């Protein structure tokens, strides 16, 4: 697994968010073989595309220690990344499957698993410094893809931008003042795909546009 740490990455026992720290402690007792810690980003710091999700899933990244690995969302995400040349290898829902990202890095707005997969406002804010540091540490970054509205808002906060100026919408492309592009997609969760909020074709259309823009930049 390739997962170099960006400056400011939370430590194993980060205590910034008491509720998340307590939940993490409970999970360590219940499942001692799981990762049960802040989940590091996956991919290289010199990537031109950064994908930002919401938070680790309890039985996904919180278990395996790699973003979007071990739950349904990873099947669609990594399958799409492989199809569009952003990943090589076979995704097997575990961190040691040998999957390698190409020009792409993946992280979450919140690095620790939240109860019921719902981080609170102050927890998103607390983790914002880590996201800001990560973006700043990526010298070739051209596009950030936000999976869902919370990730979209977290990226804007990390870049010091106001939400009102950049409305979240699936397929939206926003040019930020720094020259960075913020792209939006509905989150590739099982709930969104089961309800038809997001289809594989809709998700792939986002990557068609990202590939086009990366080729032009």
What key phrases describe this protein's structure?
alpha/beta; Uracil-DNA Glycosylase, subunit E; 6-stranded mixed beta sheet; two-stranded antiparallel sheet; 7 helices
List the topology elements.
Layout: H1 18-30, E1 42-43, E2 49-53, H2 61-64, H3 72-83, E3 87-88, E4 100-101, E5 104-108, H4 121-136, E6 143-147, H5 149-158, E7 173-175, E8 181-185, H6 190-194, H7 200-216
Parallel strand pairs: 2-5, 2-6, 6-8
Antiparallel strand pairs: 1-5, 3-4, 7-8
Helix pairs in contact: 4-5
Give an overview of the whole structure.
The protein has 217 residues and is of the alpha/beta class. The protein has one domain: Uracil-DNA glycosylase-like domain (Uracil-DNA Glycosylase, subunit E), CATH 3.40.470. The protein is built from seven helices and eight strands. It has helices spanning 18-30, 61-64, 72-83, 121-136, 149-158, 190-194, 200-216; strands at residues 42-43, 49-53, 87-88, 100-101, 104-108, 143-147, 173-175, 181-185. The strands form two sheets. It has a six-stranded mixed beta sheet. β7 (173-175) and β8 form a beta hairpin. α4 packs across α5. The longest helix is centred in the last third of the chain and has 17 residues, at 200-216. Mean pLDDT is 95; it is low at 1-5.
Radius of gyration: 16 Å
Say how many strands there are.
8
Approximate shape:
globular
Question: Total number of helical segments?
Answer: 7
Name of the CATH class: Alpha Beta
Helical residue percent band: 25-40%
Mean pLDDT: 95
* Annotated CATH topology: Uracil-DNA Glycosylase, subunit E
In the CATH classification, which architecture applies?
A: 3-Layer(aba) Sandwich
* SSE topology string: HEEHHEEEHEHEEHH
- Strand order, sheet with most strands: 1-5-2-6-8-7
Number of domains: 1
Proportion of strand residues: 5-15%
Largest sheet composition: 6 strands, mixed
Let me know the CATH homologous superfamily.
Answer: Uracil-DNA glycosylase-like domain
